[in-house]
Design brief:
Elements (H helix, E strand, L loop, with lengths): L2 E3 L5 E3 L6 H14 L9 H14 L5 H8 L9 H9 L10 H17 L4 E7 L5 H16 L6 E8 L2 H9 L1 E3 L8 H7 E3 L7 E4 L1 H5 L1 E5 L13 E6 L8 H12 L2 E9 L12 E5 L2 E4 L1
Parallel strand pairs: 3-4, 3-9, 4-8, 9-10
Antiparallel strand pairs: 1-2, 5-7, 6-7, 10-12, 11-12
Helix pairs in contact: 2-4, 5-6
């Protein structure tokens, strides 16, 4: 049987090609239930990422896979979650968009101290594989070392829709190159080298890991089960996949969990322009709850 290249280089049989009708069914489901837009240009990407799932289930066509995935009568069927994991894109690294972390250190935390907060609560919403919340944990430790006595403690909630990346985040093991841009002192204090010199892996240290609690959360949910209000929320480079209406709904629900005067950080390609939200801009893609 003729085989064709897919977007990630995997050779897929020709009969494994995703039809326009099948793609529309999948893309509509993803947008309606996850909020991520799937234009036609993404069809080859979706086909490529789902091909390993089809092989793992011993199907030989997309039609059987789709029928199985959406069959709610299959007891314990977790394929929908696995499908979402496969399709959603996760891209991050430590201290990504470092200006935001500088702003936390130089502006937000000094203000929170003046407002007499003793414990700082942070939320990394859309945390992917964990680099962002662990970076926030490092930032908090660095600030507390430089300003002893200002804060007693900090807590970080980290959420994502993907069970796959949450498992990676909890494990906290990363390739050595993911920390190469960090200072020697930072690497020494917050990361542990693998005992196997050939592995080229590092792990976030225990103190940094223990401050982060990971949970699965879908931005499309009617409400977010977050127990305590947050001083700081990071939700960066996630909303770009949503349409404008859904962006506003998500930001509003996030803002509901901010303390008055709390801070929301978005990605540098994201904006609240034209949205009716209780936020004021205080720095590029940094917003304060009114």
């Amino acid at each position: 049987m003729e085989a064709k290249n897919t977007a990630n280089g995997i050779m897929a049989p020709a009969k494994m090609e995703l039809t326009d009708a099948q793609f529309k069914l999948l893309s509509d489901f993803i947008q309606n239930n996850v909020g991520i837009k799937m234009p036609v240009a993404k069809k080859l990407m979706v086909q490529s990422r789902l091909y390993p799932r089809i092989k793992a289930l011993n199907f030989d066509n997309f039609d059987d896979y789709i029928k199985y995935t959406f069959n709610q009568n299959v007891e314990g069927n977790e394929e929908i979650a696995l499908m979402i994991d496969a399709i959603t894109t996760n891209l991050t690294h430590f201290f990504r968009e470092s200006q935001h972390f500088d702003y936390v250190m130089n502006a937000v935390l000094p203000e929170m101290f003046k407002r007499d907060f003793h414990t700082i609560e942070l939320w990394s919403a859309g945390c992917s594989s964990g680099e962002e919340p662990y970076t926030l944990s490092i930032v908090m430790q660095e600030y507390m070392k430089k300003h002893p006595g200002q804060f007693r403690d900090y807590k970080i909630l980290a959420t994502d829709i993907s069970s796959r990346v949450l498992a990676k985040a909890i494990n906290a093991v990363y390739p050595m190159e993911s920390v190469e841009q960090l200072s020697y002192d930072c690497k020494k204090q917050y990361f542990l080298k693998s005992r196997d010199p050939q592995a080229n892996l590092v792990r976030v240290n225990k103190t940094t890991r223990e401050k982060v609690k990971f949970e699965r959360l879908n931005f499309m949910s009617d409400r977010y089960p977050v127990s305590s209000p947050k001083n700081i929320i990071f939700c960066r480079n996630v909303l770009i996949y949503f349409d404008k209406k859904m962006q506003e709904e998500v930001i509003r629900k996030l803002t509901d969990h901010l303390i008055p005067g709390g801070y929301l950080f978005l990605g540098h390609s994201e904006t609240i322009f034209g949205m009716d939200l209780p936020l004021q801009t205080v720095a590029p893609t940094v917003f304060k709850k009114i």
